[in-house]
Design brief:
The relative contact order is 0.12. The two termini are about 40 Å apart. This protein has about 250 residues and is an alpha+beta fold. The protein has two domains: about 70 residues, no CATH class; about 180 residues, Glutaredoxin (3-Layer(aba) Sandwich), CATH 3.40.30.10. It contains twelve helices and five strands. It is elongated, with a radius of gyration of 25 Å. Helix 7 runs antiparallel to helix 8, helix 7 packs across helix 10 and helix 7 crosses helix 11.
């Protein structure tokens, strides 16, 4: 109903501007006649309402995309050069993809191997992971574990831990994370101690602050070049977005 009312208002304001602008100046009789004419027209041509609602939705989407582009531009340094996030793929790639993820997010798990395929098949993409735990204590523990591994053991170990956490069947607990560390050949006690370090806390706090500033509330959220992709999209769609961003850069 709200969408229908919005479409009707949009139609009155844009498709019939001369009438809409003069509505306040009409007499009660003229206003009633105008409304009757509009009602009769819409009943005879209901497809006009659908066209108006589709146009309104398209304009809303375009405005949201422009706002997202502005947010990416404003926060480019924090997104692409924070010095604390894992960076993979081609470090000199012409397109950078940033992913805000939560290890307990089902759609992050669904996107995981498709993102890997995107990076491997393209060969010219730089990928950055932003740890963004939003789904409870297990998410926070997982992110602390991943960040601790990165800080203690570097990028390659982080990628292994990242993959292990996304495929973890059990709940993330200190015990299950100790097992992950052991399976990766890492010192579980050292990682557990590092997980509580202020340097780890700062990464998570900075990512949450950045997400808030960029109006990001869900995972996965991607920044691809100069645009934002909110939510999961399949591999083919992501490849198309990358191609569009390359074309935009060339232009």
């Amino acid at each position: 109903m709200r969408r229908l009312l919005a479409g009707t208002a949009f139609l009155a304001a844009s498709a019939l501007p001369s009438f809409a602008e003069g509505l306040a100046d009409m007499t009660d009789t003229e206003r009633a006649a105008f409304r009757a004419e509009v009602r009769a027209y819409l009943l005879e041509n209901p497809e006009v309402l659908l066209e108006a609602m589709n146009e309104l939705e398209a304009r809303d989407q375009a405005a949201a995309m422009e706002r997202d582009k502005a947010l990416v531009s404003q926060k480019a340094d924090a997104l692409f050069n924070d010095g604390a996030s894992w960076v993979g793929g081609n470090p000199d790639g012409d397109i950078t993809v940033v992913e805000f993820l939560d290890y307990r997010c089902g759609y992050c798990r669904k996107a995981w191997q498709e993102v890997d395929q995107l990076i491997a098949s393209d060969g010219n993409i730089r990928i950055i992971m932003k740890e963004f735990p939003i789904l409870g204590e297990g998410s926070v523990l997982s992110s602390r574990f991943a960040i601790a591994v990165l800080q203690l053991h570097g990028a390659e170990a982080y990628k292994q831990a990242h993959d292990a956490l996304l495929s973890l069947r059990a709940d993330a607990t200190p015990e299950s994370l100790d097992r992950v560390a052991a399976e990766l050949g890492l010192d579980a006690a050292a990682i557990r101690a590092r997980m509580e370090a202020p340097e780890v806390t700062k990464v998570i706090e900075d990512n949450h602050r950045l997400a808030q500033e960029m109006e990001i509330s869900g995972t996965p959220t991607f920044v691809v070049g100069g645009t934002m992709v909110r939510g999961y999209v399949p591999l083919e769609a992501m490849q198309q977005i990358v191609a569009e961003q390359r074309k935009a850069q060339e232009g």
